[in-house]
Design goal:
Chain B: Functions as a two-component phosphorelay mediators between cytokinin sensor histidine kinases and response regulators (B-type ARRs). Plays an important role in propagating cytokinin signal transduction. Chain B: It comes from Gossypium arboreum (Tree cotton). Chain B: Keywords: Cytokinin signaling pathway, Phosphoprotein, Two-component regulatory system. Chain B: Its main location: cytoplasm. The complex is a heterodimer of chains A (679) and B (146). Chain A has 32 helices and 5 strands. Chain A is mainly alpha-helical and 679 residues long. In chain A, strands 2-1-3-4-5 form a 5-stranded parallel beta sheet, sandwiched between helices. In chain A, α6 links the parallel β4 and β5. The longest helix of chain B is centred in the C-terminal third of the chain and has 37 residues. The model of chain B has no long low-confidence stretch (mean pLDDT 87). Chains A and B meet through α3 and α28 of A and α2, α3 and α4 of B.
């Protein structure tokens, strides 16, 4: 394509050129931007459509979230950006946000008549690119293309970073941007075929730009090979070069593997973080199973969390924390196990602190509160792990984006997350906790967990910058990541089982293990964490947290959801607690958060009243606990399908996500875990 | 001449809406979206809005009669109404919606009911003002086409 060459100077050019739809539009960018707008109110829908057309965009409108999702699924590359209302009858906008982040990794902008801080925060934490207040002005719509560009750019950058070492390995088949647009949509392993085609296309188009690198489509098979190789090497020793050798895939470059590894690690981290929450509560001991398997218990939760992608993080965190609180006392024993298990824990503790700090940073107070409020016996580690999870999730998103194609399995999750969380992953996590907390009490099932990930809100918290750098925070995807993997993991193996810290996910799948081990062993994690940290503005802290989270995960091998949930909860609780200890202000923050939750959620949920009460009574723990328990019940069923094929995983994930919607419990729990991660 | 007169009349009506704050700037935004290929855009939007909001209001009124009152549902509908009213620029209606939500949020059912009555009144008044405006516009444009 000439377009790409013409625009070679601009990173976006490749993206524009990659708009599969038409190469010709790139010159007119942003005209022709393919927008999908979802709003149940016909009046608003009509007005929005009109405005978007006036901006010269190509508009598709839906009045139901389900319709929108199916449209997106049918035509993964058919849209560049999604505009969705928050308040919809059939599905919560944040849930949709999660789905999209998980499956398609498209930038999503949330809209609402509500301009309450909590809701906006929720958007941020769930990974939304932006948040518009109704009535939406046309000026606001004129700029939405920036999110598309940014996302692509970030993806590309990530790709660049990971593959920069060996540029010559393979001529970039496609610029990241191009990949981004195309692969992002596919965002998952399934799309590998398509990707390959796209890649070839882009090859022709972007063969010269050094910046542009061909995007490798990480098909399910390829990813499995990758995971097998990583497992074989051991997470600690899994270096791209060796992995590449083991995989023995012609045409695959070290760069490709490196970036994919990065994403994978983030994913694992995220899983471990989430699972930590859950597993902390239940079975820290199983920490040995690095695999995402730990998700088994968590998976239900994670999935949900992931599903929520934007929503879960905050919610899960909150929930987890709440759960943690509730269970803290019950599971005092768990922390110990965790500690024993993981070396990481040792440094998790310090991280916890950081995590807390970060949390505060992120949500400023809300996060802290959560942790704080949770009088868990869980050590700070748990808290850290939570953070970790949160962070990892965030990181994962970031790192993943460029390789949306690569991690088909993970990508959907990651992508989603990343997309949405460009801005502040941490926030998402935090938000989710906060937001979710109240929700938890009121409606277990609020699948809407509006993943705070709707972090699309542009850098409200200031973290966005950081997040963006790595490549748009995709918290949602991150969250999802584990989930997907969870199901897949089992298949993969627990090779790493013994890796401490890795196992948190309790054997969810090789992936988990790999992830865990990777996380633990490899310093590579650091980078990802760093990215995340930046977001949180507590670099060192976040990193630590991440590690902690990881450690946590491993320890949580909890094989049963229950266990995980419990663990998480307790972990959360503890973390919260420990955090509190660490940071005096956490406590107040926690309290504040609770209050905030109650108020914020009240409005949102409607059952806010209940929530408020819960919160006010500090019954969050209880509610969360209940929720988590409920989640456990449900999630396992959903989460652990016996088949962990990628496709199955995906569908399971999707199902879970959907079920999340239906089963509040699950959702809550997940959200909780996510939330717990101190941001 | 006639059309000019009608034109002025229409303009005057429109201006009065702004003066009285029945409409706000969002309405102007909508007008800007109107163009040659969709000359009746604003009217279409308003027709849709009026139709949907009456349905909302009726649902709310029904919900207020049930015992116990499903305040979550009511709030959810109010939220929707808020969004659409804001989008079309129905200023006073929007204000009433916000007020009602606030009162509902506080849990004061009696005041909520009263507020809903006010909201309904505001809506009816809004409809009564806008409909003739659009009719006049429609008639005018048709006349002009001739």
């Amino acid at each position: 394509m000439n377009v790409s060459s013409v625009k070679g100077s601009m990173s976006i050019s490749s993206s524009t050129s990659t708009w599969k739809a038409g190469d010709t539009i790139s010159d007119q960018f942003p005209a022709g931007l393919r927008v999908l707008v979802v709003d149940d109110d016909p009046t608003c829908l009509m007005i929005l459509e009109k405005m978007l057309i006036a901006c010269l965009y190509k508009v598709t409108k839906c009045n139901r979230a389900e319709t929108a999702l199916s449209k997106l699924r049918e035509n993964k590359n058919g849209y560049d950006i999604v505009l969705s209302d928050v308040h919809m009858p059939d599905m919560d906008g944040f849930k949709l946000l999660e789905h999209i982040g998980l499956e398609m990794d498209l930038p999503v902008i949330m809209m609402s008549a509500d301009d309450g801080k909590q809701v906006v925060m929720k958007g941020v934490t769930h990974g939304a690119c932006d948040y518009l207040i109704k009535p939406v002005r046309i000026e606001a719509l004129k700029n939405i293309w920036q999110h598309v560009v940014r996302k692509r750019k970030n993806e590309w950058k990530e790709f660049e970073q990971s593959g920069s070492v060996e540029e010559g390995d393979r001529q970039p088949k496609q610029s990241d941007d191009a990949d981004y647009s195309s692969s992002a949509n596919e965002g998952n392993w399934k799309g590998s075929k398509k990707r390959k085609d796209e890649e070839e296309e882009t090859d022709e188009r972007d063969d010269t730009s050094t910046l542009k690198k061909p995007r490798v489509v990480w098909s399910v098979e390829l990813h499995q090979q990758f995971v097998a190789a990583v497992n074989q090497l051991g997470i600690d020793k899994a270096v791209p070069k060796k992995i590449l050798e083991l995989m023995n895939v012609p045409g695959l470059t070290r760069e490709n593997v490196a970036s994919h590894l990065q994403k994978y690690r983030l994913y694992l981290r995220r899983l471990s973080g989430v699972s930590q929450h859950q597993s902390n509560l239940s079975t820290i001991i199983s920490a040995q199973d690095p695999t995402f398997g730990s998700l088994s218990s968590l998976s239900g939760l994670d999935l949900q969390t992931l599903a929520a992608t934007g929503q879960l993080p905050a919610q899960s965190l909150a929930r987890l924390q709440a759960a943690g609180l509730g269970r803290a006392t019950a599971k005092s024993g768990i922390p110990i196990t965790l500690v024993d298990q993981r070396n990481i824990f040792s440094f998790e503790n310090p991280k916890l602190r950081f995590g807390e700090g970060q949390q505060q940073h992120m949500t400023n107070k809300q996060q802290v509160n959560l942790l704080h409020g949770i009088p868990t016996t869980m050590e700070p580690k748990q808290l850290v792990s939570l953070r970790h999870a949160a962070q990892s999730i965030g990181n994962m998103n970031m790192q993943v984006p460029p390789h949306g194609a690569q991690n088909s399995q993970n990508n959907p999750l990651l992508m989603q997350m990343g997309q949405q969380q460009q801005q502040s992953r941490g926030q998402i996590l935090v938000d989710s906790t906060i937001n979710h907390a109240p929700r938890l009490s009121s409606s277990m099932g609020q699948p809407i967990l509006s993943n705070g990930i709707a972090t699309n809100v542009s850098s409200r918290n200031g973290i966005p910058e950081n997040i963006r750098a790595p490549g748009y925070s995709q918290t949602p995807s991150m969250l999802n990541f584990p989930v997907n993997h969870a199901s897949e993991l089992p298949g993969n193996s627990f090779a790493l089982g013994s890796t401490p810290g890795v196992s948190i996910l309790t054997s969810k799948g090789a992936f988990q293990e790999d992830v865990n081990s990777e996380i633990k062993g490899s310093g590579g994690l650091m980078p990802s964490y760093d990215v995340f940290n930046d977001l949180n503005q507590h670099k060192p802290q976040s990193w630590e947290l991440q590690n902690v989270g990881m450690a946590f995960d491993t320890s949580q091998h909890s094989n049963s959801l229950q266990g995980n949930l419990d663990l998480t909860q307790s972990a959360l609780g503890q973390q919260g607690f420990s955090s509190g200890q660490m940071n005096g202000h956490n406590r107040s923050a926690a309290v504040a958060n609770k209050a905030m939750f109650s108020t914020g959620d009240v409005k949102e949920l409607g059952s806010a009243q209940n929530v408020n009460q819960h919160l006010n009574n500090l019954l969050v723990d209880n509610t969360i606990r209940i929720k988590s328990e409920r989640v456990c019940d449900t999630s396992p069923a959903n989460i652990f399908p016996d088949h962990f094929g990628q496709d199955d995983l995906m569908s399971a994930l999707l199902k879970q996500q959907e079920s999340v919607a239906s089963s509040e419990n699950e959702f809550d729990f997940d959200g909780y875990s996510m939330n717990n991660i101190p941001v | 001449m006639e059309s000019k007169h009608v034109h002025e009349q229409i303009a005057a009506m429109r201006q009065s809406f702004f003066n009285e704050e029945v409409l706000n700037k969002n309405f102007s935004q909508l007008e800007q979206l109107e163009g040659k290929d969709n000359p009746n855009f604003v009217e279409e939007v308003f027709t849709m809005y009026l139709r949907d909001s009456i349905a909302f209001l009726e649902t709310i009124e029904e919900a207020m009669k049930t015992i116990p009152i499903d305040s979550i549902k009511v709030d959810s509908i109010l939220h929707q109404l808020k969004g659409s009213s804001a989008s079309v620029g129905a200023n006073k209606v929007l204000k009433e919606v916000n007020k009602t939500r606030q009162v509902l949020g506080k849990g004061n059912l009696e005041r909520t009911k009263a507020s809903i009555l006010e909201l309904r009144k505001e809506y009816d008044s809004f409809k009564a003002k806008l409909e003739p405006y659009f009719q006049l516009k429609q008639a005018n444009s048709m006349a002009q086409e001739k």
